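User: Here's a structure from my thesis project, written as structure tokens. My advisor, Dr. K., wants to see whether a designed sequence matches the one we expressed. Can you design one independently, without my sequence as a hint?
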């Protein structure tokens, strides 16, 4: 593959990594797809690089849900709190671009917890627990995507 092609794949990977930090795009999947396109164009041993990177990224995607679920269960936070935060986060993203996602998530989680607990203090604690779980999942996904990117960079160096 030409240098220009590899730079284009690298740019898509960068957009995917940014999509994890600023959840606008499915970042980990975008990183994996970019490496998959690279492997399809290069062929041969590039598929082994793609398989290794995809394995790491998929494991990260799976692990993040287990870790977040365990964290939320230990804090006694129901899934509906995360769902409400996610829904209002999406709405917030369109009302206030980018930062509205975070604001909407906090407001949604707070409202769900306030309805559930009927206590502002308990609702705030639940909101912080939900926010902590969201940050943990973002970190796990970012770490897995960065490891997948490093695997791809090793593969690019080999070809």
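Assistant: Designed independently from the structure alone:
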């Amino acid at each position: 593959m030409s240098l220009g092609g590899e730079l284009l794949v690298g740019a898509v990977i960068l957009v995917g990594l940014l999509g994890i930090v600023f959840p606008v795009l499915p970042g980990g999947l975008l990183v994996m797809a970019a490496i998959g396109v690279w492997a399809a164009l290069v062929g041969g041993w590039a598929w082994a690089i793609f398989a290794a990177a995809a394995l790491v990224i998929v494991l990260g995607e799976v692990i993040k849900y287990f870790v977040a679920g365990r964290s939320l269960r230990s804090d006694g936070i129901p899934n509906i709190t995360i769902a409400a935060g996610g829904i209002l986060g999406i709405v917030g993203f369109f009302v206030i671009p980018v930062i509205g996602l975070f604001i909407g998530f906090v407001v949604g989680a707070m409202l769900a917890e306030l309805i559930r607990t009927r206590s502002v203090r308990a609702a705030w604690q639940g909101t912080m627990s939900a926010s902590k779980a969201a940050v943990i999942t973002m970190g796990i996904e970012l770490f897995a995507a960065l490891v997948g990117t490093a695997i791809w960079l090793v593969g690019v160096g080999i070809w």
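When you compare it with your expressed construct, this may help: Helices lie at 3-21, 27-42, 46-74, 79-95, 99-117, 120-158.
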